[in-house]
Write a structure and sequence with these properties.
By secondary structure, the protein is mainly alpha-helical. It has one domain. About 75% of the residues lie in helices and about 0% in strands. The chain is built from 4 helices and no strands. Helix 1 packs antiparallel against helix 2 and helix 1 packs parallel to helix 3. The longest helix is centred in the N-terminal third of the chain and has 24 residues. It is globular and about 40 Å long.
């Protein structure tokens, strides 16, 4: 595997871990903030530059700091307008 493919795979894993962190915060029984922070730290180890877009950086900060109802509200609005973290 070449360097470009390696970067793409690591970036995809980092994005999926960010999605999973949001899921941990939104789902009942999802282990909340602790599990979300754990997934975010794993995402940074895989490919920190893949999380550097404004949308992903906002999601990352929200997962750590925002209360769950605000995350639910923001996710619903984003989905209505066709935005995802993928």
């Amino acid at each position: 595997m070449g360097p470009d493919e390696d970067w793409a795979v690591r970036a995809a894993v980092a994005r999926k871990l960010l999605q999973r962190a949001v899921w941990h915060r939104r789902m009942a029984g999802g282990r909340a903030r602790y599990a979300a922070v754990h997934d975010l730290s794993r995402a940074f180890r895989h490919q920190p530059r893949a999380l550097a877009s404004p949308v992903r950086t906002t999601a990352l900060l929200a997962v750590i700091r925002a209360p769950r109802p605000m995350i639910d509200w923001a996710t619903d609005i984003a989905h209505r307008f066709g935005f995802t973290l993928a």
